[in-house]
């Protein structure tokens, strides 16, 4: 019998986040949790425990792809897992994130608020129903920008879930690439010394608490 | 118990997502150092479940002798 654990229901948090964002864009700020926790776990814990166990998006994609059978379940093209593509996408994603922060800064210094959510960095969706009159404009601008990032990555995740394997998004997820990079910087030497970087038995890693 | 003739082999482009470890019926796979999945050859029976779910398609089922 399968045991029911709270960690298996984190997909509800992911789904709730998207719905709350539709209800009030300021809920987009909650997405900072999805950004900061994996990084903190990688930096201080030296592991990808968030990706491996606690990622709500991964669970949601698995639910859609495996349980609801919405995935073609075929291997993705090789370029998707290549280093240049993964780090290239991370760079692009961070550049877009930087632009979002810059537009937030511009609003902070007096530029008018742009009340739109941008999907896939191109398509501007009108979001006029959002009531953000009770917060500073830059707080609202950041929320619009951040929700754009989250919505865009969710859409990409769902598209690649349908086209390839359920969790194909995990292959090029910028957070996953970044946390793996942090782990390589933090643990790469240990892994190389013990020859556990890609193969062989796991006993040593296990013994050292990995 | 006799060891199976085939075993999972994780390629260098592993993204350490943990999908393989989640489905392994013998808990033979774990994500070591947050860098890559690694297979315990004593536990792996080459059942292919990991290879079937790997989103990066970097797991192959190979002859045990070729790896060890």
Question: Would you give an account of this structure?
Answer:
The complex is a heterodimer of chains A (210) and B (68). Chain A has a two-stranded antiparallel sheet. Chain A has one domain. Chain A has helices at residues 10-23, 32-45, 49-54, 56-67, 83-108, 137-163, 169-172, 174-193, 203-207, and strands spanning 116-119, 123-126. In chain A, strand 1 (116-119) and strand 2 (123-126) form a beta hairpin. Helix content of chain A is 61%, strand content 4%. Mean pLDDT of chain A is 88; it is low at 197-201. Chain A contains nine helices and two strands; from the N terminus they run H-H-H-H-H-E-E-H-H-H-H. In chain A, helix 1 crosses helix 4, helix 4 (56-67) packs parallel to helix 6 and helix 5 packs antiparallel against helix 6. The longest helix of chain A has 27 residues, at 137-163. Chain A is globular, with a radius of gyration of 19 Å. In chain B, a hairpin with a 3-residue loop joins strand 2 (29-32) and strand 3 (36-39). Chain B has three helices and four strands. The relative contact order of chain B is 0.36. Chain B has one domain (6-67): Alpha-Beta Plaits (2-Layer Sandwich), CATH 3.30.70.20. The mean pLDDT of chain B is 91. By secondary structure, chain B is of the alpha+beta class. Chain A binds chain B through residues 42, 46-49, 51-53, 58, 75-76, 78, 80-83, 86, 164-171, 176-177, 179-180, 182-184, 186-188, 190-191, 196-203, 205-206, 210, and chain B through 9-19, 21-22, 29-36, 38-42, 53-58, 67.
Write a brief structural summary.
The complex is a heterodimer of chains A (210) and B (68). Chain A has 210 residues and is mostly helical.
């Amino acid at each position: 019998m399968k045991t029911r654990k709270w960690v298996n229901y984190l997909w509800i948090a992911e789904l709730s986040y998207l719905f709350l964002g539709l209800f009030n864009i300021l809920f987009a700020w909650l997405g900072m949790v999805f950004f900061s926790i994996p990084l903190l776990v990688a930096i201080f814990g030296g592991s990808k425990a968030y990706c491996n166990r606690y990622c709500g998006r991964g669970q949601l994609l698995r639910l859609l792809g495996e349980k609801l059978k919405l995935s073609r379940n075929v291997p993705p093209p090789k370029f998707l897992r290549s280093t240049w593509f993964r780090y290239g996408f991370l760079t692009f994603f961070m550049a877009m994130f930087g632009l979002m922060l810059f537009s937030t800064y511009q609003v902070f210094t007096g530029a008018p608020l742009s009340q739109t959510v941008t999907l896939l960095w191109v398509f501007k969706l009108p979001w006029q129903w959002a009531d953000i009159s009770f917060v500073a404009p830059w707080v609202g601008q950041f929320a619009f920008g951040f929700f754009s990032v989250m919505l865009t990555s969710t859409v990409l995740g769902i598209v690649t879930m349908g086209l390839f394997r359920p969790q194909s998004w995990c292959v090029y997820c910028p957070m996953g690439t970044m946390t793996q990079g942090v782990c390589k910087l933090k643990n790469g030497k240990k892994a190389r010394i013990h020859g556990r970087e890609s193969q062989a038995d796991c006993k040593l890693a296990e013994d050292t608490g990995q | 118990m006799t060891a199976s003739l085939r075993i999972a082999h994780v390629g260098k482009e592993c993204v350490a997502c943990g999908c393989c470890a989640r489905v392994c019926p013998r808990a033979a796979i774990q994500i070591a150092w947050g860098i890559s999945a690694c297979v315990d050859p004593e536990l792996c029976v080459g059942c292919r479940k990991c290879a079937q779910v790997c989103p990066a398609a970097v797991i192959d089922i190979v002859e045990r002798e070729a790896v060890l």
